[in-house]
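Researcher: Quick test of sequence recovery. Tokens follow.
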């Protein structure tokens, strides 16, 4: 039976740090074979889950092992990395903390890999979707485990598509291009009155950088050359992908449907000013909060026709600090959190798509999360040592073309050089 998780808690609301120390053991007897050192208190840092969402799982771990767990939710993703690195530098960091899935390559020295007795490579590949091993496995060692994996998907306004005579959302980029003229309305004096999709620039489009990176990957560009650490985007494939994306903001093109004068993409979609946006599952509650009456649904991410589906992954797995005095115990907790039952509890409470293969079928028919869950099977990624810097570089690359400040070739060359320098700074 499919779960329906329509009541969701926004994971992006900025709140004060909340700390919960859960030490009660309940009345269930402990298994003497699993009890660990009861003097241990694991310190766990998270970003998205609040205390209530993790409390049943933490309590279950405490009751079965006797180990206390203190959980802290960091309020702001913008400050998280800085706070974490500062705490680790001062040797007051947590035992367990979330990392962005792209951090493993650049931050391996901070992480304690999982003992084979906790999880090995075969179990990782059997239990989790492929992108997890691609991102978190290095030299046969596992550096983190997720409860959830998110992907980009297509949000669509049912009323606007129906009014344009479009029976179903576009499944390919070619179908999307064909739908542009049927949906877009431009006034006699130039302003866009109704947009088909929020694409073209970066400045007023949420996650524009991720959309372009996905286009590059769908087009067959590996981004990272095999056996190398340098980015490779300044080529014909990169030029075609960047031009394809920015053409949606080019007034001379038939696909023109967005410009820098439009409202921010999430707001424009919520207010019915655009029919389509591309985003992650975590923005479902954001859009509902902006307009509870909006009749929208989620469709799979458009693909290149007759090509292998490729989707863009984004997630925050749990890792264990190399500084932890009890890394084996910490990894026992991470493994417990990411097992079938515990991860399902967390995802159901938080409204997030699963990372485990054995949970995908159970929510595949869910009207909100089903698409995101199925797309994890074809999700891909690439190592980024500094996601904030790379987002800024890619966004600048996009907008320099849209504003006419540079050609696609010039923008790609500049971005490739900047991304390479950012990677060296991170390693240095």
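Model:
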């Amino acid at each position: 039976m499919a779960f329906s998780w329509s009541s969701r808690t926004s994971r992006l609301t900025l709140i004060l740090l909340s700390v919960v120390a859960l030490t009660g053991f309940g009345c269930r007897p402990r298994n003497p074979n699993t009890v660990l050192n009861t003097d241990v208190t694991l310190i766990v840092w998270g970003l998205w889950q609040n205390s209530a969402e993790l409390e049943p799982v933490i309590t279950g771990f405490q009751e079965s092992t006797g180990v206390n767990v203190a959980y802290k939710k960091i309020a702001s993703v913008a400050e998280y990395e800085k706070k974490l690195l500062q705490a680790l530098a001062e040797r007051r960091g947590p035992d367990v903390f979330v990392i962005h899935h792209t951090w493993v390559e650049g931050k391996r020295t901070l992480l304690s890999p999982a003992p084979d007795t906790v999880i090995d490579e075969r179990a990782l590949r059997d239990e989790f979707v492929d992108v997890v091993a691609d991102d978190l496995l290095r030299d046969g060692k596992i550096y983190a485990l997720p409860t959830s994996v998110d992907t980009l998907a297509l949000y669509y306004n049912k009323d606007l598509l129906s009014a344009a005579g479009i029976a179903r959302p576009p499944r390919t980029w070619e179908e999307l291009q064909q739908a542009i003229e049927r949906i877009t309305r431009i006034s006699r004096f130039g302003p866009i009155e109704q947009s088909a999709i929020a694409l073209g620039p970066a400045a007023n489009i949420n996650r524009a950088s991720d959309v372009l990176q996905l286009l590059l990957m769908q087009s067959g560009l590996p981004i990272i050359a095999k056996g190398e650490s340098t980015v490779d985007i300044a080529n014909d494939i990169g030029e075609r992908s960047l031009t394809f994306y920015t053409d949606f903001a080019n007034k001379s093109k038939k696909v023109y449907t967005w410009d820098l004068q439009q409202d921010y993409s999430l707001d424009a979609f919520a207010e019915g000013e655009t029919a389509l946006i591309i985003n992650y599952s975590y923005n479902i509650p954001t859009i509902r909060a902006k307009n509870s009456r909006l009749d929208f649904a989620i469709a799979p991410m458009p693909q290149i026709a007759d090509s292998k589906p490729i989707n863009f992954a984004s997630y925050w797995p749990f890792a264990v600090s190399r500084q932890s005095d009890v890394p084996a115990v910490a990894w026992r907790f991470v493994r417990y959190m990411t097992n079938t039952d515990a991860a399902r509890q967390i995802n159901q409470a938080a409204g997030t798509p699963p990372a485990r293969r054995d949970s995908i079928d159970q929510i595949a028919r869910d009207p909100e999360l089903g698409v995101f869950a199925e797309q994890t099977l074809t999700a891909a990624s690439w190592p980024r040592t500094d996601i904030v810097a790379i987002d800024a570089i890619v966004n600048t690359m996009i907008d320099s073309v849209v504003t006419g400040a540079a050609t696609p070739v010039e923008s790609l060359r500049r971005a490739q050089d900047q991304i390479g320098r950012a990677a060296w700074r991170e390693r240095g």
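The first strand starts at residue 18 and ends at 22.
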